Structure formats: structure tokens, C-alpha cells
Amino acid sequence: MVESTRIVLVSRPEGAPTPANFRIETAALPEPGEGEVLLRTLYLSLDPYMRGRMSAAKSYAAPVEVGDVMVGGTVAEVLESGDPSIAKGDVVQAYSGWQTHQVAPASGLRKLDPDKAPISTALGVLGMPGFTAYSGLLKIGQPKAGETLVVAAASGPVGSAVGQIARIKGVRAIGIAGGPEKCAYVREELGFEAAIDHRATDFADQLRAAVPDGIDIYFENVGGAVADAVYPLLNTYARVPVCGLIANYNATGAPEGSDRLPGFYGRILTKSLTVRGFIQTEFVREMYKDFLHEMSGWIADDLVRYREDIVEGLEHAPEAFIGMLEGRNFGKLVVRVG
Ligand SMILES: NC(=O)c1ccc[n+]([C@@H]2O[C@H](COP(=O)([O-])OP(=O)(O)OC[C@H]3O[C@@H](n4cnc5c(N)ncnc54)[C@H](OP(=O)(O)O)[C@@H]3O)[C@@H](O)[C@H]2O)c1
User: What confidence tens digit (pLDDT) does each residue in 66-88 have?
Assistant: First the structure.
């Protein structure tokens, strides 16, 4: 009998999550039945959306119930298979959650070829975050050569891919990131035209100076003070793919200060803005195959670079996840489990 070590949700956070919201435990797994496989997790992806799953608030996906294993994308090795399409020893992209082993239906798995790309990239640049950047930018951002794009969380998996794809399309990419080290990486390694530290006291002035022709695409990853600085700089007919609002994920109430909604709507009206939210799953059927093909080519041609922040050991997942919400990760945050 196989035992799975797993991290479960024991309480819902009030504001920022703490280690006390999680517990590590073990559970015995059944034998895989027909059409099922036994998986051993190799890598676990940690992503901002998991903060939403810890909350009971209604959202686009059901919350994790208290006592249940935290959800999450994984790369796993098949230890036993009860399905002819998957063999023992295959490496697959799965959704095993924060645990070392899982019995899962074979139907939801995607086989990976370890000779084509490092398998952990299936959780980052060649996985959900990379696809989010690709689909949100191309479908909603509608980039055109000569335009200017701004994206925050620019050293992370979504933002870094957004800026690099924009550059491939002939767009000036301006990144926003937390701290000088991340900004240097965004400029020098990723080739953004400029990178601005959102923690700098003169952040809004630096941003204005970096976009003398205004902003045509704001790929919204964070909201909060960054969005406040960006909106006045948007050009007529600018597009705003609303991808994430991480600045608000730990909020417990409305932001302080005056109501900014009338000003926000006023700008949408007078500047003819397109502000369109999306969840990447919307575009999977239509665009995932093209994404894998194009992104693999761009990586091979050194047009897209990526960085992984690998944490060793499942037991460190809670603190790594908590740190990501504060910007302590540098690159795609992945836990090496196996
Ligand atoms: N719509 C979808 O389908 C979809 C799919 C995937 C991801 N997303 C969203 O995309 C965004 C980026 O995700 P990711 O996986 O690429 O994350 P990530 O960059 O690896 O990590 C989040 C980053 O957000 C930044 N951040 C945190 N609080 C901030 C604040 N108050 N102001 C400005 N920046 C802040 C931090 O970077 P700095 O240190 O640089 O500030 C942190 O490292 C998230 O909002 C996520 O929820 C949406």
C-alpha cells in the first residue's frame, strides 16, 4: 500500500495566509482501478490563484474545503497504470495538488517528453502561466508593432512571457517589478525596454517618463497602486486584458481613500478603453496547440527566456506560497517534491 504525504487546508485565512492555515499529514491510497493511474509527484506548481481557493467567497472555481488537500498543477511520474494509454514510467502533467502521491483518472493527464524541454517548464513557460500570457495578450491585448505595453509582476511567469511576446510582435515592453534585482533581470535578461520598481517613492513619475507616447496595452496582473499609476497614461483605444489582481488577494475590506470607480468608468468612456477580464481556460481549446508550438520555437530561438524559483521539499510549500504573495519568489515558483 502507498502512503501519500499531503498538505491540507485547516482554516481559512483572514488577510494574508499563515503557516497555521495548513497541516501536513499522511493518508493511505487505494490501488488504481481500471482507467486510473498511481502518480508520484515530481514538481508542484505554486500559483497566486490558490489564495482564492483558500477562501469561501464565490468565484469562478470551487474553494478547497477545510480538511481537503490544497489543489495545484503538478508534473508526476506514473508508478502504476490501469489504462492502456499511459505506461508505468511515463512523465505526465497532472493536477495532483499538494501531495506526494495520487490515484487519478488517466483521462485528465498530458504526457510530457523529457527530451523536448525540462519537465518543470510544463508548470511555467510551457504550461498554464505561459499560456495565460500568450492567450490574454494576443486575444485581448491585440498587439500591433510600434505600440507600448506595460505589465507588472514582470519577472514572474505570466509577466515575463507577456513582455517577451509583445517584443516579438514589435511592441515596446515596459516592465514593473519589485526591487532593483528583479528590474535588472527584466531589462537585461528578458530584453524589456525599461523596468520600473513599484516600490520606489517616485514610481508614478518614473513610469510616466518611460512611456512618452502613452500606453496602448496594459496587461493587468496586479491592480492596486500600480493600476492607479497606469490608468491616467492609457491612450485612446487602449486594451486592458485583466488577468490578475494580486495586490487585492489578501485584502479584508475596501481600499482606503475616496471612491475611484467614477474616475475609472470616466476613463473607459472618454478614452474608449477595452477592459476585458479572462480566465485562461476560456482559450485552451482554441489556442493551446498553437501556444505550445510557438512558445517552444521562441524558447529554442532564445526569443523567450524564463526563470524558475525551485523550492526543495513539499513541507516548504506553505511558506513559499505565502512568500509569493509578498513578492519573495523570483521567477516561476515550483516545489521539487520527488
Ligand atoms: N486569469 C488567469 O487565467 C490567470 C492565470 C495565471 C495567473 N493569473 C494572474 O496573473 C498574475 C501573475 O501571476 P504569476 O503566476 O506570474 O505570479 P508571480 O509573478 O510568480 O508572483 C506574483 C508576483 O506578484 C507581484 N506582486 C505581489 N503583490 C504585488 C503588489 N501589491 N503590487 C505589485 N506587484 C505585486 C510580486 O512580484 P514583484 O516582486 O515584482 O512585485 C510577486 O512575485 C497574478 O495576479 C495571477 O493571479 C491569472
Answer: 999 999 999 999 999 999 999 99
Strand partners, 150: 174, 218
Contacts of 298 (CB under 8 A, 6+ apart): 164, 165, 168, 304
Placement of cell 517552444 in the chain = 296
Strands (DSSP E) along 141-189, which ranges?
Answer: 148-152, 172-177
CA quadruple 287, 291, 293, 298: dihedral sign: positive
The protein residue whose alpha carbon is closest to atom 40 in ligand 1 is 177
What nine digits make up the cell of 205? Answer: 513619475
**Are the CB atoms for 58 and 319 separated by under 8 Å?**
no
CA separation for the pair 187, 34 (Å, rounded): 51
How far is CA 18 from its chain centroid?
21
pLDDT tens-digit series, residues 283-324: 999 999 999 999 999 999 999 999 999 999 999 999 999 999
Mutation probe of ligand 1 site: the residue of 134, 155, 158 with most atoms within 8 A of C-beta? 158
174: Cβ contacts below 8 Å, ≥ 6 apart: 148, 149, 150, 151, 163, 192, 193, 194, 195, 196, 207, 210, 211, 215
Assessment of whether the complete model's pTM goes beyond 0.70:
yes
